[in-house]
Amino acid sequence: CSVDNRVTRVAWLNRSSILYAGNDKWCLDPRVVLLANTKTQYSIQIQDVDVYDEGPYTCSVQTDNHPKTARVHLIVQVSPKIIEISSDISINEGGNVSLTCIATGRPDPTITWRHISPKAVGFISEDEYLEITGITREQSGEYECSASNDVSAPVVQRVKVTVNYPPYISDAKSSGVPVGQKGILLCEASAVPSADFQWYKDDKRLAEGQKGLKVENKAFFSRLTFFNVSEQDYGNYTCVASNQLGNTNASMILYEETTTALTPWKGPGAVHDGNNGAWRRGGCGWLLVLPLAQLARQF
């Protein structure tokens, strides 16, 4: 508050309460202190400002002629703060999801929701509440609530949404393996929660540790390994993937793969007959003899 030498009395008031009169402190709040009381300036300071300090403040000046007042309105700005947000949620595919994010601040913060996903573009809600109807597995993941009011950097918190769905077998291929070699059948499945796998040959379930076999189950696939394939191993196999929401299966065949053996030539024009295993003279040798005979007759 600016003053001059005509001033005889000065005071600071908050609404109708006197804070300071001259050098005398009238309020009990330790945060309010006198900064200056000179011939040109009369100033107070409010330390550690709170939202309750917001409002009008009046500098009252008494001169020989008449009193004067100067008024200032204190606006307190507060950084945004998220005070309530939904907990992580697990829901079955097709269900409805409601997420809530409540924040305080001055001015009132703007609330936005976005899906943390490579395929997501922009905000999916500009409100405290996010409603998802008929949620799909592609909509699972983290959802980020952001509260901003330009007083400071936005504050963010995330909610994890897990979408449960029954198994879906994405890959199951038949395999050809020669007798005596190592064979592998692979079954890949997507599911939440992760699928449990079982293997069957015809209608008989294959047990872990069965002689000559190894069943390796992971979160998203199951591998059936034959260490030394025999004739009895060939046939139809079924992979069954299941969780609490359902099950699915896929069939594949382990079949005998035969290869034609190639043997190095036993001389010019010799090839191996894959049908009866006999060696025969190739026709290329006779093609060379015929032109030589014709050439001899000309001379």
From TrEMBL:
Pfam families cross-referenced by the UniProt entry: ig, Ig_3
Bilayer topology annotation: Lipid-anchor; GPI-anchor
Record GO biological process: cell adhesion
One cellular component (GO) term of this entry: side of membrane
Main localisation: membrane
Localization in the cell: Cell membrane
Annotated Ig-like domain residues: 1-73, 80-162, 166-260
Keyword Protein biosynthesis: no
Protein's UniProt keywords contain Membrane: yes
Record key words, sorted: Cell adhesion, Cell membrane, Disulfide bond, Glycoprotein, GPI-anchor, Immunoglobulin domain, Lipoprotein, Membrane, Repeat, Signal
Family assignment from sequence similarity: Belongs to the immunoglobulin superfamily. IgLON family.
Annotated protein name in UniProt: CEPU1 protein
Naturally occurring in which organism (per UniProt): Tyrannus savana (Fork-tailed flycatcher)
